[in-house]
């Protein structure tokens, strides 16, 4: 493919479309394996055959970035990347610019560099989420349980992204383990050590993603508990106010009835007595509310 760095072309690395692969290299794969290449890619995976390997590389949709994917074919002589877009082409150009002095002798070395780049390049987004969660926790403490409409949605989005990170790094770790197990004869000892290190590093990042996801769940529970407590406090105040005015409402309704003869209203002292009764009821209710500690 035009634009591929020379040091990659020298070790028989190609980036082509599925149609081009069919026209040039269809004979290299068994029928059922070739048909796998037409299926949508949702996982990073590798399958080892007797004289070749094939698989897929997948970057999930995280942090509002579109997902990326490609298939690949690998044997002792060539490494063929099959994609319809330019994701892997751009990634290989980045690798070539960063490691322009590296000496490549086997196609599998290019695959190792791609896996290394995929592991390291996404790590920063994981720690960006951690930083945002710390800021969100500080904001929650400062707001004293104030309801923030978008916060629950934010927690849900973080949890979904971290689950995608967990799967992403788990697949990369398993990918490295399979390469280490089945490709010992073509992976140099120093490359095997690098492969084992990448596998452990991917596992650590997977564990970090799981820890952060648990942190998100804890923050979400704390936030929901704070909002619930504030709502309960509001309902408690409304209940107390309703309780205070219920007897007064009864008196108002009782003596507001349109009867011609209500004997206790005829004496001149009736109104002052009613006021004293109302005051007494309010004092008694306030006393009982404080005694029961309804507003504490």
TrEMBL record:
Classification of source organism: Bacteria, Bacillati, Bacillota, Bacilli, Lactobacillales
Protein name: Magnesium transporter CorA
Record-linked Pfam families: CorA
One GO cellular component term: plasma membrane
Species, as recorded: Globicatella sulfidifaciens
Recorded catalytic activity of this chain's protein: Mg(2+)(in) = Mg(2+)(out)
Gene3D superfamilies: Magnesium transport protein CorA, transmembrane region (1.20.58.340)
UniProt keyword annotation of Isomerase present: no
UniProt xrefs under SUPFAM superfamilies: CorA soluble domain-like, Magnesium transport protein CorA, transmembrane region
TM region(s), chain numbering: 237-257, 269-289
Family: Belongs to the CorA metal ion transporter (MIT) (TC 1.A.35) family.
Keyword Transport attached: yes
UniProt KW keywords: Cell membrane, Ion transport, Magnesium, Membrane, Transmembrane, Transmembrane helix, Transport
Subcellular location as annotated: Cell membrane
Domain of life of the organism encoding this protein: Bacteria
Topology relative to the membrane: Multi-pass membrane protein
Annotated InterPro entries: CorA_cytoplasmic_dom (IPR045861), CorA_TM1_TM2 (IPR045863), MgTranspt_CorA/ZnTranspt_ZntB (IPR002523)
MF terms in GO: cobalt ion binding; cobalt ion transmembrane transporter activity; magnesium ion binding; magnesium ion transmembrane transporter activity
Function: Mediates influx of magnesium ions. Alternates between open and closed states. Activated by low cytoplasmic Mg(2+) levels. Inactive when cytoplasmic Mg(2+) levels are high.
């Amino acid at each position: 493919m035009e634009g591929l760095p020379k040091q990659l072309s020298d070790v028989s690395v190609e980036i082509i479309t599925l149609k081009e692969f069919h026209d040039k290299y269809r004979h290299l794969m068994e029928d059922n394996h070739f048909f796998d290449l037409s299926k949508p890619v949702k996982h990073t995976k590798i399958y080892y055959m007797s004289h070749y390997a094939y698989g897929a590389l997948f970057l999930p949709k995280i942090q509002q970035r579109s997902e990326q994917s490609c298939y690949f074919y690998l044997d002792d002589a060539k490494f063929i990347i099959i994609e319809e877009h330019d994701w892997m082409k751009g990634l290989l150009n980045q690798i070539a610019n960063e490691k322009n002095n590296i000496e490549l002798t086997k196609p599998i070395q290019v695959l190792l560099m791609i896996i290394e780049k995929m592991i390291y390049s996404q790590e920063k987004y994981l720690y960006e989420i951690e930083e945002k969660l710390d800021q969100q926790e500080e904001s929650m403490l400062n707001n004293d349980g104030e309801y923030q409409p978008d916060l629950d949605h934010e927690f849900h989005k973080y949890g979904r992204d971290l689950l995608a990170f967990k799967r992403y790094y788990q697949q990369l770790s398993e990918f490295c383990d399979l390469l280490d197990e089945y490709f010992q004869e073509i992976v140099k000892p120093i490359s095997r050590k690098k492969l084992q290190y990448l596998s452990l590093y991917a596992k650590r990042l997977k564990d970090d993603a799981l820890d952060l996801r648990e942190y998100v769940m804890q923050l979400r529970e704390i936030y929901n508990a704070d909002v619930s407590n504030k709502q309960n406090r509001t309902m408690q105040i409304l209940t107390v106010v309703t309780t205070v005015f219920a007897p007064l409402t009864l008196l108002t309704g009782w003596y507001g009835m349109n009867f011609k003869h209500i004997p206790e209203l005829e004496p001149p002292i009736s109104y002052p007595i009613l006021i004293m009764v109302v005051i007494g009821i309010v004092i008694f209710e306030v006393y009982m509310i404080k005694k029961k500690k309804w507003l504490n």
